[in-house]
Structure prediction request, 240 residues.
Amino acid sequence: MTTTLSERKKYPIYILLDVSASMRHSPSGGRPPQAAFNEMIPDLVMSLSDSRSLAKAAWISVIAFGNEPELLCPMTALTDPVLIRSPQDGTQTNYVAALRFLHDRIGLDGKTIEARGAGQHHRTKVAPPLVFFITDGAPYASGRYQLPEEWMPHRNRIVSAPVSARIAAIGLTGAHPGTLAAIATGRPGGQQNAFIATSGATGDSLAGSVITVIERSIKLSVQAGEMVIEVPDGMRRVDG
Prediction:
């Protein structure tokens, strides 16, 4: 007798958070963006876990990057307790190290998800990762700006087959529009999933709107099978 295996699709989600020195400053006098995100990201994960259907399908990991990348939360199923450490304070914005680290983690995490989902009557298919890249600056490390030809190859390995990740680049005050557009993905011939803060947007309220949109995006993207993201309040879309 032939046994038919059912397929269960799992969605790995990554939140990459810039923790360079500028993320701990607030020109508007409010709470610095890093402090706001440190508080809101665990709340985001808790809210996502409350959705039974989403929790069964999604896994999440949180990575900080400054001088070097730091794994704050290893890839964890939303059905499990998700523990997120506070990041160490960074000074630089090392895109090369962050994107290289992300690529390596995606490969390891995919194997972890597949192994956890293996069953006698079903198999697990790992969907293309959803990546939310949050930054407030241009790529800078070792006392100089990193050139696109240094970090773009790492980005291209992430978004190309077989990984085929979908990236939303979310730029706070101080980010470079062209860099955000280069990092992000979008629909062929359509808009990039790249966003930047408008003038006057404060770090605290902006972090809140970003977290709200990420939460909604994860829910919609898992349902649709591809990245769906709206423009956060206080931001505008960046065209490539």
User: Anything to note?
Assistant: DSSP finds six helices and ten strands in the chain. The longest helix spans residues 95-117. The mean pLDDT is 91.
